[in-house]
Amino acid sequence: MPAERLRRHAVVACLAILTAGCAGKAAKDGPPLRGSTAGAPAATVPRPEPLSHYGNGPEYEVLGKRYRVMESSKGFRERGVASWYGRKFHGRLTSNREVYNMHGMTAAHKTLPLPTWVEVRNLRNNRSVVVRVNDRGPFVNNRIIDLSYAAARELDMVEDGTSMVEVRVIEFEAPAGDRPLRVSTPAPGGGGAPERSGNDIYVQVGAFGSRVNAERRLALLRQYDIGDTVIVADTARSPALYRVQIGPVANVFDYDRLVEELLRIGIDDPYLVTR
Q1: Count of domains in the chain?
Q2: Are residues 224 and 128 in the same domain?
Q3: pLDDT tens-digit profile of 6-17?
Q4: Beta carbons of 96 and 135 less than 8 angstroms apart
Q5: pLDDT for 106-115, tens place per residue?
Q6: Which of 6, 94, 228, 253 is 20 to 30 A from residue 86's alpha carbon, by CA?
Q7: Which of 187, 198, 205 is CA-nearest to residue 272?
Q8: Nearest to 138 by CA among 152, 128, 154
Q9: DSSP state, 200?
Q10: Both 15 and 136 in a single domain?
């Protein structure tokens, strides 16, 4: 696993007051050892739950940076890079003091209330998985969610270690009977970019009602040699919307490098789209 992820997990382990502690020699993270028993967990069934007494802030600090836990996850959706964590933390306590099971469908997030149920979709292959957020992290730039080994395996991202994903909160409404209903409430993002069925991933850096403004953004990108830029005109809307996009982006390494370049020129809100 990358060194930055090992450092991130060491911090989380300390914050969560893990049973194994942080004083010993760091073990290498990774998938289950060969011959180990999976210990399959119960099926993942999304359901409404009360908030945990642990791990919900309202604020906490890691590596000098403060994070505020969201009061509500309603309508939450984001796109970015997912990572995963495995056997190094198997059997230790999560931030809400549950035992981490690398074979369970769980995840860590920096600001969602604990627990929260989310659907994670791999933007590259359209595979999806439902996970229960019960931990904090990942405290690494450009990483939005840390998945369990089992969840990462379902998304076919174990070997790569990271993948570009969409995270969408699963919401519930109470019907007349005893059983809750799962409801889906899509949240707009990135200027309302429409969903597409393709797997080519682009970074959107602006959505403008004026083509002149879109041309200005395009000129700024080209001024700093940020290539493969294009304006995508959505004329089905009235008035039309002009989206400035970069790509396609081949992998997470290229995405991280692009985000750094954008930050240097003052663009701090890139949004992943597929087309």
Answers
A1: 2
A2: no
A3: 444 444 434 433
A4: yes
A5: 999 999 999 9
A6: 253
A7: 205
A8: 152
A9: -
A10: yes
